[in-house]
Amino acid sequence: MKNKIVIMSTLLLMLSLLYACANTNSLPRVHPEDVRSLGMPRPNCSECHTDSWSALNHRAPNYLAKHRFYAASSRQVCSMCHTESFCSDCHTRKDEIKPSDKFSDQPERWLPHRGDYFSQHKIDGRINPVSCVKCHGRQNNQRCATCHK
Amino acid sequence: MKLYHTSKSCLVLGAGAAVLASTLFWSTPLIASDYSISGESNTIFRMRRTIDDKKLLPAYEYLHLNMTDNRSDGTGLSLHIGGWGRTDLGDSPTSDSADGDVQYAYVTYRAPKDNTAVTFGRQFVSEGVAAERIDGLYLRNDFLYGLSASAFFGNSVITEPGSAVQNQGGTFVYGARLSQSNKKYYTVGLSALKGETENNGKYREEEGIDLWVHPLQQIDLTGRSTYNSITNGWMEHSYLVTYAPLSSIRIGADYAEINFKDYLYNMTNPALSVINPVWNANDKMTAAGGSVAYSGLGNLMVSADYKYYSYDKSGHANYFGGKASYSLPQSFVVGGSVHRMDGVVDKLCYNEYRAFASKKIGQADLTLDAINVNYDKKINGVTNSYAVTGAAGYEVNRKLRVGADVEYSKNPDFDREVRALVKATYTFDTNSAAEGGTKK
Question: Residue A29 is nearest to which of B110, B123, B405, comparing CB atoms?
Answer without folding.
Answer: B110
